[in-house]
């Protein structure tokens, strides 16, 4: 006779279902489109820096706030929406992030000066900053265990798509209408379309079972079993958790819980996020300006940066193929420092266009092997009850680092140390974070999400 506690829980059933493109794949596609707009928007900072520097006669320290304001908004959005998603559910947070982003992007396009522009970019960032932690939590919790590493790694394939689209559309706009405002407005219409499509996505079954919302959980899980052709079996709900009310105090409590869960893993998550993404954002935001200063025409600088982003799609494919074979830690240990090193070479040969372009393509490939593996690894370090907020706080740390890091980079490091040494210092930080991970944190390949 089978006892109730011998039955699998609902979240275990979901993680063992067969993969179907029309079911879990659809959620992967919808979630990935939001991630694409995150990439498009961050890449747009690099486009806007040289354009607005000319429009409003900005010095580099002023122009740096174009990216810093946006990334600081994303930093707040990452922990804000990650905490909201853990408190009220993935679906509501999933649909709201793009709407807020779209509204303030339109307002930013009509900003009269740099001060108002930065305010609107900050608020747009608050909305879009929630896409990465919320989307990864939702997609990961719908994905079967056997495919989870590849699917979460493949999520980052949307990033080079968004970054490349930004570069190509910006180059076209500046070669035709030559108005920077259209580089912002052109991405709002598809973002609103994705917002509307997201309304059809069900709530995460893992979230529902953890919160004891029995009727909704059974409806979603039974529908998943039927639509995927999984084996019908009895299952049970685990012990329900008390659903926290969303408040600043609750967010502080969640941050405390993230650190109490495993301090060493949280140091790993934060340090990897900060250092690897600092290296990436330095290139993404300042490479167009670096290339323009080296003599590239504006449209050519945007297309070159677009190529750097586009080749990253091959890096994501490589990561998806290797992540389950090699493991998360080994891939990060190799590709994180290698990406930083290739960026140093770019700085050394930037006055030789052919060499600079070649090394930018190498950098774009290697860094996009590292980043999706990083996202997959960090999302697996935390249990379900703090997965979105744990990822969100790590993302917050990275956005703060990527916000203030370039400000320090263009104000102090670059003018006094030069471009190659400045990039090399960032690479040393990546190496230190990789060594901490290797010593203190586990490999998560094949581990079950609780």
UniProtKB/TrEMBL annotation:
Molecular function terms from GO:
transmembrane transporter activity
Organism per entry: Arthrobacter caoxuetaonis
Q: Where on the tree of life does the source sit, at the highest rank? A: Bacteria
Q: Where in the cell is it found?
A: Cell membrane
Domain Major facilitator superfamily (MFS) profile per the UniProt entry, residue ranges = 27-445
Per the record, GO CC terms?
plasma membrane
* Listed PANTHER family: SYNAPTIC VESICLE GLYCOPROTEIN 2
Query: Topology in the membrane?
Result: Multi-pass membrane protein
Checking CDD domains in the record gives: MFS_SV2_like (cd17316)
Kindly list the residue ranges recorded as spanning the membrane. 27-51, 63-81, 93-111, 117-139, 151-174, 180-197, 267-287, 299-323, 330-350, 356-378, 390-414, 420-440
The UniProt keyword set, sorted, is: Membrane, Transmembrane, Transmembrane helix, Transport
Q: What is this protein called?
A: MFS transporter
